[in-house]
TrEMBL record:
<dbReference type="InterPro" id="IPR000073">
    <property type="entry name" value="AB_hydrolase_1"/>
</dbReference>
<dbReference type="Pfam" id="PF00561">
    <property type="entry name" value="Abhydrolase_1"/>
</dbReference>
<dbReference type="GO" id="GO:0003824">
    <property type="term" value="F:catalytic activity"/>
</dbReference>
<dbReference type="InterPro" id="IPR050228">
    <property type="entry name" value="Carboxylesterase_BioH"/>
</dbReference>
<protein>
    <submittedName>
        <fullName>Pimeloyl-ACP methyl ester carboxylesterase</fullName>
    </submittedName>
</protein>
<feature type="domain" description="AB hydrolase-1">
    <location>
        <begin position="37"/>
        <end position="250"/>
    </location>
</feature>
<dbReference type="InterPro" id="IPR029058">
    <property type="entry name" value="AB_hydrolase_fold"/>
</dbReference>
Length: 267
């Protein structure tokens, strides 16, 4: 990766392959969660894979964080790379960032793919916020790394280190190093993100929403939320996948993503 200067900071970036550009907006906690997808897409597309501020070797991020600022950073990065229009994909937290990018920079976003976007503003919003409040309380009581380890133990099981490192070697150590960004920057950013039906009307591009068939109760109503926001969005469910589709089912994700992008080539 090389470090690209944007707005007083630097973000680690690699551009893979050639063809229509697709920007993979990095999610929270797992800096390289979209790397397996990037590697599979590089034979057909020009793939922009990067680390947001506060992750890996990019510049630090200052709390409390902002979804809109993360979206602005993505726009600045694409401009620095000379990319004027791109397909954009976000997963989990970065689904919010990608949505905000499509609102704030509609001429930049050619298509929008949302992979397991977050449940804020949806039917499980209150439960999701309560779970995050408990996580942040644990961070205050025991420190960021300990809180993240307990979070991953509860969400991925006792073999969370092995599962992460099989998908992307070194990831278990990286999530511990980036735990403060996740807890102090990204979670407050997401919980403070304003978005509604009126805002969604500003999304003008084709949209694909991909969900996992086994993603858990917080995300069960997200499909209805996306339909309310974006009635024109295509919706696909990947059977057997959980919330971390990009890590566990990258091949299945490619199978639904490539035909969608092929129907909407970048001029």
């Amino acid at each position: 990766m090389t470090r690209v200067a944007i707005d007083g900071g630097q973000v680690e970036t690699v551009v893979l392959g050639a063809g229509d550009p697709i920007a993979l907006v990095p999610t929270a906690l797992t800096a390289d969660e979209l790397l397996p997808l990037a590697e599979r897409l590089q034979g057909r597309f020009q793939v922009v894979h990067y680390h947001r501020r506060g992750y890996a070797g990019s510049s630090p991020a200052a709390p409390p964080g902002s979804v809109a600022e993360d979206a602005a950073d993505c726009a600045r990065l694409l401009a620095a790379l000379g990319i004027g229009r791109a397909n954009v994909l976000g997963a989990s937290y970065s689904g919010a960032v990608a949505l905000q990018l499509a609102v704030d920079h509609p001429d930049l976003v050619h298509t929008l793919t949302l992979v397991e976007p977050p449940p804020v503003h949806g039917p499980a919003d209150a439960e999701f916020r309560a779970a995050n409040a408990a996580l942040l309380a644990d961070r205050q009581a025991r420190g960021a790394e300990a809180a993240v380890e307990r979070f991953l133990l509860s969400t991925m099981g006792s073999d969370w280190r092995g599962r992460l490192d099989v998908a992307v070697p070194g990831t278990s150590a990286q999530v511990r190093r980036d735990s403060r960004t996740f807890l102090d920057v990204d979670i407050p950013a997401l919980l403070g993100w304003p978005f509604d039906v009126a805002t969604a009307t500003r999304v003008r591009c084709p949209v694909l929403h991909v969900s996992g068939g086994g993603h858990g109760p917080y995300f069960d109503g997200v499909g209805d939320l996306i339909h309310a926001w974006l009635p024109h969005a295509e919706q696909v469910t990947i059977a057997g996948a959980g919330h971390d589709i990009a890590l566990t089912h990258p091949d299945a994700l490619v199978e639904v993503l490539v035909p969608f992008l092929a129907r909407h080539p970048v001029d």
